Amino acid sequence: MTIATPFPLTLPRKQIAPAILAGLSFIVAFGEPMATLVRDWWSNPDAGHGLLLFPVALWLAYKKGLVEARPQPALGLALLAAAVLMRYASGLAAELMTMRGSLVGALLGLLIYWRGIRQVMHWWLPISLFILSVPLPEVVLGSLALPLQLKASQWGAALLEMRDVPIRLDGNVIRLPGRSLFVTEACSGLRSLTALLSLGLLVGGLWLQTWWGRTVLVLAAIPVAMMLNAVRIFLTGFLVYFVDPALAEGVMHYSEGWVTFVIAFAILGALTWLLGRVETRIRRPA
Question: How are beta strands 168-170 and 179-182 bridged, if at all?
């Protein structure tokens, strides 16, 4: 059993000067990756989840506290040196993902140097949430968004056909009589998928006790997000065809997104409860 102690809010006097020097050096070396990361959290809709995940990760690290320190200076310095080299290379190429990867590597190197690998394992949840808060490159996002657009269009069109709505599917365009619905990149479900994966990791880390239960919950977020995005497209097409074409835009369109996300949250909550019951029955002695 791991015994954790509260995170110290003050440092011994002999450690203050080294800590300040290390902090200033870290800001000089990795200030640009940190600045671009915060900028994307604030201005990029595909990265906005970082505004929530990062504070939650800090809070969880504080609440979990520190385990017994077993510093590993050699491993920490090696990881830190690799992060610095990666940071230098990313600066030459002006490549954001490598730059931000060097930031994550440097933080892990400092943690291992200071407390050891056991602290990294103890903080696995806040570290994972922080890594999820780092946005993917545009190239990767584009390669993921297109298949999701096509799959959501196919599933939404199939649901509309089940309700006898006359449609023709052309890639990511659903053609209705007198109206066409374009499943754009923003409607691909990538944002909701990222949010639900983060939510599944957070909920599983807090309320589930086994690795397999957490894995099932995180993996379940993928089909849940894709299916509910298809339902959102179906609702849009259904309302456009039977009620009013104006319902495909504006407040109603965004409201459908919020409603489907709340439903997805409820589904993950119910699955978390079910997995918790299964964990309890498995661990209960015969």
Answer: unpaired
